[in-house]
Amino acid sequence: MSSDAATAANATSTSLPRIDALSGGPGGGPDQDLEQPRMGLGSSLPAADSRAKTEGTFPYAADLWAEGLLWAAVLRSPHPHARILSIDTSGAEEMPGVRAVVTHEDVPGESNYGRHVVDRPVFASDLVRHHGEAIAAVAADHPDTARLAAAAIAVRYEVLEPVTDPEKAFAAEPLHPDGNLIRHIPLRYGDAEATGEVVVEGLYRIGRQDPAPIGAEAGLAVPRPDGGVEIYTASTDPHTDRDLIAACFGLEPDRVKVVVTGVPGATGDREDPGFQIPLGLLALRTGCPVKLAASREESFLGHTHRHPTLLRYRHHADAEGRLVKVEAQILLDAGAYADASSESLAAAVAFACGPYVVPHAFIEGWAVRTNNPPSGHVRGEGAMQVCAAYEGQMDKLAAKLGIDPAELRLRNTLSTGDILPTGQTVTCPAPVAELLQAVRDFPLPALPKDDPEDDWLLPGGPEGAGEPGAVRRGVGYGLGMVHMLGAEGTDEVSTATVRVHDGVATVICAAVETGQGFTTLARQIVQETLGVEEVHVAAVDTDQPPAGPATHGRHTWVSGGAVERAAKMVRTQLLQPLAHKFGMSTELLQIADGKITSYDGVLSTTVTEAMDGKELWATAQCRPHPTEPLDEAGQGDAFVGLAFCAVRAVVDVDIELGSIRVVEMAVAQDVGRVLNPAQLAIRIEAGITQGIGAALTENLRTAKGLIRHPDLTGYALPTALDAPDIRIVKLVEERDVVAPFGAKPASAVPVVTAPAAVASAVRSATGRPVNRLPIRPQAAVAAAPKG
Q1: What is the pTM of this model?
Q2: CA dist., res. 450 & res. 445, Å (int)
Q3: Residues in domain Aldehyde oxidase/xanthine dehydrogenase a/b hammerhead (predicted)?
């Protein structure tokens, strides 16, 4: 940070005991018999920032400070749909301590922004399109003054009737110059006339899950002497943010610098540019550093959420339960602006049949604008919504045929060499049947005893109103899949530099650490390749070459691949003089535990001695094989790779009150290769817990477009008390040959699969259809009497 801004900155299977012990599960603690490497890939190297985060000294964006700091506040619309008749800022400008007020008239460059589609205004000018849309921003010498000044801005509105039903958006007046339809994908695969002996239908609704990022969304903008600006914030895609910020400011990109401060964690886009752009405008206007720390309410109003989705399904199967045809209609509510809706729709349509072999598929998918809160990237977008629906259909099909739900799924599972409904051949490992068999065969948890001391095990806990006799146990299954990296022609590329000097290695890569473990992985790669134990990963800013967004596990693959290539280039520089001296090739030399040895034992030296005080460095890029957009029939090789997961959920349901307790989640996952056992376990557990939230509690509710209770009392996140026993039953390490290290992303697919498994278990316990997420209490009340 500048001186003015001081304080930020080959197929094997791994079974339960290994990971579960490391994750504090039923193994009861670290397994002393497990031999792990001390460093490098495969070791449980702890995160470099873990101690700082534990002790509370980690510098988050909300902790930033600079000399002469001003505070920002944003005025947001109280209406979901309105025409702006006038904006009077005089009341705010006249307040003591107010240094600047900016509106749409003060945006010097492009008036709209967007990471995926440039359609969202920095400040609303003529129309308000969603509750909480930014109207103006204020800079003042105290945060309370800034908030009071924002409230003093007088805006006259003509309130308009909001369009909140996405089904009505097709016929409604256009809410945006680009129209209400963002994208339509008609997928056509096989014979439209094909039918099955058994047909089941279903209508499913998925709620609006919020990413609920840990810590305040905050940032600091510092003006530069050259007329540019530096933005310090917890961005997950700093180069894209820099480019769109520069466009709005009318500046060249090199005059805007985005510095990534400590990211507490992210399950979607972390800091929306809508928070960053007003900061920069105010800093440029005042010539002073300006800070904004959004309240939780502002975060709910400002950033994007998971797409609420309406899904209609019809499954055809033969008498043995083998799928014949799947028909579906999928409608994504994008809210007011497009954002990542096109990408989310592509995933939803492509994965609408799930990890099953389906000879014939006909899917219609739409993403439309409404006056609801904006939707965007949240972990597993598109795939999570359809997983809940197609797994509901599989349960219906099993019930109608009288087949065990797990057996029905096993008769239809996808495997390597099969073809997706998009026409793309599955070339990566796809051990779906193996995953399902692992969770099906894992021992079930014991039933709770009918004992007062065990009341806390029942839904509602010891103070609950239910009776033990009303509790029913259910077991359900979910199979899910996600795509890795970007899709449909996205140019995935990342650049990394590795530098070694005096026994210390430094990695420079603009891949943002969002909790996915990239900085730890980068250290492990360099340790393994160069035998250097002390490895530092430089802080991220836009002076470095771009690495792309922190989504779809891409930093493990693309950025990790770039680090590996750079480290191997340094390795060659290190070994070539020795190989030449002893008349052998570098391939005959190996590095391990800081020592260099030859195959015949003639050469043995340390890395430090071989370096001889030299500084070695190399820069490399990683770019996976290209993909292509889906065509007019939904066909195309749109995805680089796929990852799969199976979950068995066990729930207890009070069938009189509808209260639900998740007892256990058994997980088997296709991971390619375990790079860090402890971190992998944590990522899977976190994904399962987020999925449980989507299944039972998380829904950002709206009434006629107005967000109700935009806080953490009205929006219920699962806590430690809500988290069940999570048993990592099996990790299939069948390496993907096209991926660096053979690894696959770990955290998105449990999020996708867990809600479907919980809903399946509640169906098992109650006999109810359960076609809405999160599950409402009335949907968990059994129709049948007790007994």
Answers
A1: 0.91
A2: 15
A3: 55-161
